[in-house]
Amino acid sequence: MSKHVAVLMGGWSAERQVSLSTGNACASALRSAGYRVTEVDVDRSIAQTLAKLHPDVCFNALHGPFGEDGNIQGLLNIIGIPYTHSGVQASALAMDKPRSKRIFKSAGLRCPDGVVCSRDDTIAGNTYDPPYVLKPINQGSSVGVHIIRAGDNHLPVIGDWPFGEEVLLEPYIPGRELTVGVFDGNAFCVTEITSDHGFYNYEAKYEEGGSVHLLPAPLPSAITEEAQSMAIRAHEVLGCRGVTRCDFRYDDTDDREGEGRLYLLEINTQPGMTATSLVPEQAVFRGIPFPTLLSRMVEDAQCDL
Hints:
It is a single chain. Helix 1 (16-32) crosses helix 10. By secondary structure, this protein is α+β, with helices and mostly antiparallel strands. The protein has helices at residues 16-32, 46-53, 71-79, 88-95, 97-106, 119-124, 202-206, 221-237, 278-285, 290-299, and strands at residues 4-9, 36-41, 57-60, 115-118, 132-136, 146-148, 166-171, 176-183, 186-194, 212-214, 243-251, 261-268. 32% of the residues lie in helices and 23% in strands. It is built from ten helices and twelve strands. A five-stranded antiparallel beta sheet has the order 10-9-8-11-12. Strands 4-7-5-6 form a four-stranded antiparallel beta sheet.
């Protein structure tokens, strides 16, 4: 008999709609690969739901808090159902942007400087001179990310800011947007992302035609090799498993040193997984069809040891 896979999707984070898109695409592809699939729109009774379903594996298609930060992973560890993607510790560290940045820097990976500030200090201007990037400390899909430029007369943290009392501020890195998917300890390739939105924000990621993906990215070979090596190292130092995706800025605006400088922005332990998402695109480039990629993730599913 084929394995029964419960695709966990939806949830209640700000990335609910993204998760539903990922979950529906994964469920369809897994059925085409021969699995028995049940889509589960996750709510707070998920433990009882899974107890009734008795799936062999959970495919984690959740995005954002609870699904991506170690919470659902811990629940599945307790229940004893193997699941795809990273475990509790790696998921929690990756979702905590300031903490993961400290770990990356300690491992010798080049990241933008950053500082955690209160909303009040940010509003008062006791922070970086613009341009700088303002981020929630624990969201994905570029939710709440803003570039603050000189002359901006309104900060997003004023008023209805639903992402907590602290924010992460980073100096703005000019240049090009790159991303690298990693699976089974190997990098797929480097994709360059261009967008009329100015940077790869939520709208650029999910609006039809919001971005253009160039793969393999037209880069000097040394930068390609560095991006892939940095992505593999970031995956390793956090203890990730399964699929991850690392995002970079490549500053080639000042090439006095020859080839510019590459900066690791963050790692995503639950990257988008529709057939046209970045990681599946890279997998296809490497000769791995979408259903095959998902099948391998299901067969590698596990609980934390």
